[in-house]
Amino acid sequence: MFKNQYDTDVTTWSPAGRLFQVEYAMEAVKQGSAAIGLRSKTHVVLACVNKAQSELSSHQRKIFKVDDHIGVAIAGLTADGRVLSRYMRSECINYSFTYESPLPVGRLVVQLADKAQVCTQRSWKRPYGVGLLVGGLDESGAHLYYNCPSGNYFEYQAFAIGSRSQAAKTYLERKFETFDSASHEELIKHALFAIKETLQGEKLKSSNCTISVLGVDNPFQVLDSMMVQSWINSLEEEGPAAEETAAAADQEAVQPAAEQGAAPDEGSAPMEE
Amino acid sequence: MFKNQYDTDVTTWSPAGRLFQVEYAMEAVKQGSAAIGLRSKTHVVLACVNKAQSELSSHQRKIFKVDDHIGVAIAGLTADGRVLSRYMRSECINYSFTYESPLPVGRLVVQLADKAQVCTQRSWKRPYGVGLLVGGLDESGAHLYYNCPSGNYFEYQAFAIGSRSQAAKTYLERKFETFDSASHEELIKHALFAIKETLQGEKLKSSNCTISVLGVDNPFQVLDSMMVQSWINSLEEEGPAAEETAAAADQEAVQPAAEQGAAPDEGSAPMEE
Amino acid sequence: MFKNQYDTDVTTWSPAGRLFQVEYAMEAVKQGSAAIGLRSKTHVVLACVNKAQSELSSHQRKIFKVDDHIGVAIAGLTADGRVLSRYMRSECINYSFTYESPLPVGRLVVQLADKAQVCTQRSWKRPYGVGLLVGGLDESGAHLYYNCPSGNYFEYQAFAIGSRSQAAKTYLERKFETFDSASHEELIKHALFAIKETLQGEKLKSSNCTISVLGVDNPFQVLDSMMVQSWINSLEEEGPAAEETAAAADQEAVQPAAEQGAAPDEGSAPMEE
Amino acid sequence: MFKNQYDTDVTTWSPAGRLFQVEYAMEAVKQGSAAIGLRSKTHVVLACVNKAQSELSSHQRKIFKVDDHIGVAIAGLTADGRVLSRYMRSECINYSFTYESPLPVGRLVVQLADKAQVCTQRSWKRPYGVGLLVGGLDESGAHLYYNCPSGNYFEYQAFAIGSRSQAAKTYLERKFETFDSASHEELIKHALFAIKETLQGEKLKSSNCTISVLGVDNPFQVLDSMMVQSWINSLEEEGPAAEETAAAADQEAVQPAAEQGAAPDEGSAPMEE
Amino acid sequence: MFKNQYDTDVTTWSPAGRLFQVEYAMEAVKQGSAAIGLRSKTHVVLACVNKAQSELSSHQRKIFKVDDHIGVAIAGLTADGRVLSRYMRSECINYSFTYESPLPVGRLVVQLADKAQVCTQRSWKRPYGVGLLVGGLDESGAHLYYNCPSGNYFEYQAFAIGSRSQAAKTYLERKFETFDSASHEELIKHALFAIKETLQGEKLKSSNCTISVLGVDNPFQVLDSMMVQSWINSLEEEGPAAEETAAAADQEAVQPAAEQGAAPDEGSAPMEE
Amino acid sequence: MFKNQYDTDVTTWSPAGRLFQVEYAMEAVKQGSAAIGLRSKTHVVLACVNKAQSELSSHQRKIFKVDDHIGVAIAGLTADGRVLSRYMRSECINYSFTYESPLPVGRLVVQLADKAQVCTQRSWKRPYGVGLLVGGLDESGAHLYYNCPSGNYFEYQAFAIGSRSQAAKTYLERKFETFDSASHEELIKHALFAIKETLQGEKLKSSNCTISVLGVDNPFQVLDSMMVQSWINSLEEEGPAAEETAAAADQEAVQPAAEQGAAPDEGSAPMEE
Amino acid sequence: MFKNQYDTDVTTWSPAGRLFQVEYAMEAVKQGSAAIGLRSKTHVVLACVNKAQSELSSHQRKIFKVDDHIGVAIAGLTADGRVLSRYMRSECINYSFTYESPLPVGRLVVQLADKAQVCTQRSWKRPYGVGLLVGGLDESGAHLYYNCPSGNYFEYQAFAIGSRSQAAKTYLERKFETFDSASHEELIKHALFAIKETLQGEKLKSSNCTISVLGVDNPFQVLDSMMVQSWINSLEEEGPAAEETAAAADQEAVQPAAEQGAAPDEGSAPMEE
Prior knowledge:
Chains A, B, C, D, E, F, G: Keywords: Cytoplasm, Nucleus, Proteasome. Chains A, B, C, D, E, F, G: One of its GO terms (biological process) is ubiquitin-dependent protein catabolic process. Chains A, B, C, D, E, F, G: It comes from Salicornia brachiata. The structure is a homoheptamer. Chain A has one domain: 4-Layer Sandwich (Glutamine Phosphoribosylpyrophosphate, subunit 1, domain 1), CATH 3.60.20.10. In chain A, the strands form two sheets. In chain A, strands 8-1-2-9-10 form a five-stranded antiparallel β-sheet. A five-stranded antiparallel β-sheet of chain A has the order 3-4-5-6-7. By secondary structure, chain A is α+β, with helices and mostly antiparallel strands. Helix content of chain A is about 40%, strand content about 20%.
C-alpha cells in the first residue's frame, strides 16, 4: 500500500501544498449526524438530528445557547464542540461586561476561527474535529456562519453539515430564495423538511431532531419536544407540499445529476477558496 | 500485516476523520468489570461487579463517594478512575466553600468531560482509560450521567458499562419505563438483577457486587455487605420474578436478534452522535 | 517509490540546500484562487477571484483592509491569511498610536516577512500557507508588495498569484509600462481584464470577483458589487479593446511559447534570488 | 516477526484498550526476588528474600521503615522502590508536623498510587518498575496494601509478590483464615514458611531473608539476623508442622491444578478489575 | 538507494565526524545568486547579481546597510539574510548608544558567527541558509569578512560566494595583489569585472547588479542605478582591459585546470580548517 | 537481524520488564579499567588501574577525594564520574556547613543513587555510564559502597569493578574474611595483589596503579608514586605469598570452574535483587 | 546494509556500553588540521597548522588567548572552538574580578570538561566537535591539557591532535624527556619540527603555521609571522638536526611499526580509561 508520509503531522505540508491532517479533521465533521441552519432577515433557525445512544439515554446535546443573541449547532466530535461553545459563551460574557452591549456575531466568529487556526500550526495539538453553524442577531440583522476545522468561516443564507447533509443542501438550494423574507414559522418548516431529507426514510419524530429559533424579539430558544412534535404533525397534514417536494426530488434525480457530479465535495469546506 | 499509521498518536486524525487512540481508550472501558446505574425521579442506584484478585485480598473499590449528593461508579483503569474522582471531590469542596450550596451534578459532569477532552488534544498525554457513571441529586432531581474517555457525556435513565454489560442493558431496556417512579428499594432490586445478568452463570453474592444508593433524604451511601446479602436473599425468594425474566430473555433470544444485530456497538459511546 | 527523507520537517535541509517544507507551503499559494495587484504612482488596485462555496453562501473574504492606507489580497489558506492580516492591523494601530503617523508600507512588509521567516526555523511550527499582495500608500507613493511563505518579499509594479495566475501575469507584463501614470479608473479596468484571464472561459461577473482601490485622497475601499458590475458592463461595451487583447493573446499563443517555457515557474517566488 | 507498534510508548493505547508499557513494568515486579506480607488485626509482618550479590557484599535493602507505624517491602527495581519509600517518609513527616498525628495508612497508599498513575500518563516518563507491600497500623487497626506500577492498590490479608511468589501465595491462601487473630509470633512463623516456599529447595537461612514486624505497641522494627536465625531454628524443631505442609502441598499438587490453571496470572495485579 | 541516517537532524554526528545538516545549509549559499566583496586599505566594495523575478518586479534587495561603517551582501535564503542583517543593525545601535563609538567590525562578525553556531547545536532549530559578506571600516582600516552557516567566519582581501562564484574568484585571485592600495574607483571596476564573470555571457547591465561602497570619509552607500550604468559604460569603452581579461581567461582555461581540479570546492567554506 | 525495539529509549520497558538502556549503561562500567575497594573496621583502601594514554600524558584521574572522610574510585565514563564526584563534594560541604559535622557516608550514597535513578526515568536524559566505589568513615566505622548506573547501591567488604575485575573478585573472595581486622598496611597489600590479578601478566608498576587510604586518624590520601613503588617492591620480596596465591589460583582453576559458571555475571550489579 | 540503531541519538547507549554520537564527535577532531602543544616546567608552546581557504583569505584563527596566563589551540569545528574559548575568557575575567588572582589552569579545564559533559547527556544537544589543547601557567608551574568532546581531559607533557597528528606524536615521544628543562626557544623549535611532521612533504612556511608562547614572565603571545619565518629559517640552517630526525624517522619506519600497530588509535582520546 502506498504510504503517505505527509499526513500524520498537522505541521507537515504535502508536496502539493496540502495539510492532510486538517483535511482529515474535516472528515470528522462529515461523520457527525447532520446539523442545519437557515435564516431570514430577522431570524435564524438551527436544527439537528439526534441519534439516541439507546432508549435509556437522552441524546447528547448538539445545539447550545451562547448568549441571548447567539446559538450554535455542531456536527462532529461533540466534546470538541462543547469546549468551543464554552469558549464562545465566555467571550460573550466578557464583552458585554466590558462594553455593555452584545458581542457582534461576526466578531465572535472570527475569534473562533482564529482559535481553530492555531490548532493547525502547532505540532503538539490537533485540529478541532467539529464544524459549527453559528446563528446570531446583531445590529446588521440575522446571520448564519459556518466555522470549520481549518480555521475558515463562511457566511450562509442556509447550510447543512454532517452525515447525509447533501440531501438537505439540495432542498435548501431549491428554496433559499424565499428565506430572506420568510417568517420564523416558515423557517422552522423548511428546517424540518431539510432534516427529513437527511433521515433517509427514517420517520421524522420530535425525538430525533432538535429545533432552535433566534431572532428579533426572540432570544435564543430551543423548542421543547412537544412543540416540535406539533410542528411535525402540522407538516404531515400539509402532506402535498411534502409530496411536491418528493416529486421535485424525483425529477431532480434525473436532471441535476451532472450538476451534483460537478460538485461532489460541495459539503466540505475547502481550506482554500 | 496492514500497519495503521494513524493510531499511535492521540493528536493524529485518520483519513476517515477518526481519532483511533480515543477509540482504543474506550476499549479499556469495555474490558473493565461491569458497572451499572439507574435512577428514579428521586434516587440513583449505582452498582458494580467486584472481581476479587484472590481470596487474600479485598476487591479494589470501584464506587466512590464524591459528595453527599454525588457518587460515581467506574469501569476501566481503576487508577485513572480514582484520580478523576479525587478531582471531582475537590471541585465539590471548592464549590460549596465558595457558594455555600452543593455543586449541581450537570455542571460537575461538564467539567469532568472538559478535563477528559484536553487529554485527547495534547500529544504528550493519553486519553483517560475509564468510563464513569455519575449519579447525583440536585434541585432538578436525580440524575445519571455517563462520562466517557472521548470527553463526551450522556444523560441516562439507566445504563451499564464494562465487560458483558450488553446483557445488563438488555434487562434495563425492558424495565426502564417503570424506574422513574420506583422506590429506591425497587431500584436496588433492578440493579441486582442487572448485575446478575453480567455474571454469566456465576452466582450473585454480596462478595462479588457493590451497591450504593443516593437520593432525597439519603446522602450517598455504599450498602454494607450484610445488607447486600439480605437483598440478594430476598430476591431469590422472589424467584418467579427472576424466572419470568429468564423466560422473557429466552423469548427475546429469538425475536430481537435483528435489532441487536442492527446495533451491535450500542455499548460503546461513539465520539460523534 | 522514492521516499524523500528531507521533506517532512521544516528544519531539515536537503542535500542540495533546499527546505522542501517551505517550497510545499508555496504550493498552497498556487492552489488558492487568483489574486492580482497593480499600481500607478498614486493608486493601488487589488483584485481577486471569488470561488463561491455554493449558492447558499457568500464567498469567503480574501481582500482585507489593514488601515486607511494599506490593504491586502491573499491566495492560499484563507485562515492563515486572516490571522496575518489581523497582525498587520494591530501593528498599524500600535504604530499610529505611538507615532501619530501612519506606518510606512515597506516597514510593515518587512515585519510581516520576519514573522513568516520564524515559522521556517522552528521544528514545532509550519510555514504559513498563504501569499499576500500588500498594497499601500505612504510618503514615497503607492506600493505593491508580494509576501510569500518563505519569508521573502518583493516589490512589484503589478503581480498575480494563485491558480491560473500565469495568464494574468502575461496580460500585466504586456501592459505594465502604462500603469505608472494611469488613472485609478484605468487600473481597475486592467485589473478586471487580468482577472478575466484567470477565469478560463468562465464569465466575468460581479459575483466572482472583488475589486479594491486605495490611493491619494482615496482611503482603502472595497468596491461594492453594483459598482463592479457597472465596470464589467462598461468593459464589454468597449469590446474591441478586449478583442484586441484576445488577438494579441492568440498571437502570443504562437510566439512567446518559448519564452513561457523558459520561465515556467515564474509564478513561484523562489527562496533564493 | 510481528512488530507491536503500541508497546513502546506509555501514552499509546493498543487497539484492545491496553497500555502495554504499564504491563511490561508490572513484569519487572515479577522478576524481583520475592516479598511477602501478612497481618492480624493488630500486627503486620513484612518479609523478603535476600539474594546476595556475592559473598563480599551485604544484600541490598528491600524492607524500609517509613514511620513508626508504617513499613514497606518491595519487589522489582530497588532504585525505584527506594525513591518511592523516601517519598512516603517525607509525606509522613509533613503530615505529623502539620496535624500532630500519624498519617493514616490508607491515605498514604492513595497518594502513592496517584504518584504512580501520573507516570502512566506522561510521554516523557516511564511507569515505576516496583511493587510495594505497605504495612501499617492506624486507628482502624493493622493494614496490608499492595501498590503496583499501574497506579492501582489493593488491600490484602496476606500477599506475596516477586519471583516464585505463587508458591507463597498458595501457602498463604491455605492458612489465611487463622491470621486475623494470630499473635505476631505466629505471623512471623507463617512468614518464614511462606518465604521458604519461594526458595525452591534452597535452605532457609537468616542470611537470605529479612523479617520486619509492626503492631500495637510495636513500632516498625526489622528483626536482627540472630533473632531471625533463632526463629528459623525453632521452626525446624517443629518439623512436623512443616512436613504436614509439604504433605498438603503434595496433595495439592494433584487436585488444585485445574484451579491454578484457571488463574495462572493471579500474581499479576491487573490494571482493571 | 542508500539511506543516510545521519543527515536529517542538525544535532546528529555522522560516523566520520561530520554534521551533514550544516553542510547542506552551506549548499543553499551556493544556490543563491552571486555576491562579491573586495577591499583596499581604506575602502570596501560589495556587489551582487540581481536576478529579477519578472519584468513586473523590482529585484529583491541583497545588499543591506548595517551602519554608516558596515554593510553586508548575502547569497542564499534572503529571508534568513534579512533577519540576520536586522540583528546586526540592532547590535550596532545598542553599541554606539552605550559606548558612543561605532561597533568594531570584527566584534560584530564574531557575534554573528556565534548566533549561527547556536543554530547548529539545538535540535529544534536549523542552521541559517545564508552566507554573508560583511564589509566594514574601523580604526584598524577596512575589512571584509565572510560568515557562513556553520558559524565560521573568514577574513578576506576579496571573495565571491553564490552560484557561479568560482569564475569571479578566479578573476579576483589574478588581481587581488593590487587591491590593497587601489582607489575605490578601481575597486568598483574590479567588482564589475568579477560580477561579469558570473553572468556567463549574459550582458552586464545596471539592472542586474548592485554595487555599494564604504570607506574613509565614505559612509556606506548603495550606488544608484544610473551611476552603476555609467560605470559599466566606461568599462566597455576600456574594452581592451576586458579583452585582456578574456584572453587571460582563455589562457587560464588551458593551464590552471589542474589547479582548479585540485581545489574544486574552494567555494565552499569547510567547517574545519 | 532481529531488531530490538525496546532498547533505544531509557523510558521504554521491554515485554520482559527490563530497561535495556540501563543495562547497556552498566556495560560501560565493565569496559572501564578496573577499580577495587576493600575495608577493615577502621580503614578503607581504594585502588585502580591506570591505563596511560601515551608516554606523553599523565593518566586520567580515577580516584577522587570527596571529603576528609570520603573518597571514590570510578570505572566507566570518567567524565560522568567526575561530574558525580563534584556533586558529592558539594553535598559534603553544604552538610558540614549546616550541621557542623561530617556527612554520614550512607546518606551521601543514597543521595548519589537517587540522582542516578532520575536519569533512568526521563526520556531526554541518559543513565550515567559510570560505577563508583565509595569509601568512607563515619561514627559507625569504615564503609565501602558500590553505586551503579541503575540507581542501586550495595555495601561491600571488598569489591572490584571494571574490565577483568572478575580475577580481582576471586582473589578478594578468597581473602576477605581476614580484612575486617586487618591493618591498613595489610589492606594495601591485598589491594595491590587484587590489582595485579586484573593486569593479566602485565607487570605491576607504580605508574599503572593508584592507591588511596582512608581511616581512623587518616584523612583521605592518595599515596604518592614513590610510596606505591616501595609497596610493590616489598611485595615482590615477599614472593612466596604471591606464589602461594598463584598456586591457589591454579588449584582454583580446576575446581571452582563450575561455581564460576554458575555465576558468570556476578560482576554486573543487577537492577533487581 | 547493517543499520546501527544506537548511533543517532547522544542519549542512547549501545548494547556494548558505548555512546556512538560522542565517538563520532571525536572523529571531527581528527578531521581538523593539526594542533600541537608542549611544555617545560616554566613555558608552554602551542602551535597549529593553518590551512588557508584560498589566496584571498587570511586563515581562520585556531589559537586563542584566554587570559595572560592561559591560551588554547583547537582542532575540529572552529565555530565550536571559538564559542568554548569565549566561555573560558569569560570565566577567567569573572574569577579574577572576584578573587583578584588568576584562575588556576586546572580548575578552568575541569569547568570546560563539565560543560562538554552536559552536551553528552541531553537529547536536544550535540557533543562539541572540537578538541582543545589548553596551555597555562599558575603557581604549580606550566601545564598542558587536552579537553576532548567526551567531557574528558588529560594532562600532557606534549601532545598533538587533528589530521596527521600521529607523525607529530611520534616525534614528540622521541624527544619529550628533554622538554621539562628546555628553554622556550627550544620548545619553539620542537614545535616547528613536530608541525613539519604533519605537513607530509608540504613546505613549512610562516604562512601555514601559527606559534604561541606562554610562560614565566611571558604573558600569552602569538608570534608574528616574521618572527615565525626567522625561526623556520634558523631551523633550516641547523639542517643536520632535521636530517638526523629524518634518519631516525626512517629507522623508525622499520622497527616501531609493530608498536604503532599495537596502538593505532592512540590519537583518539577514549571515553574510558
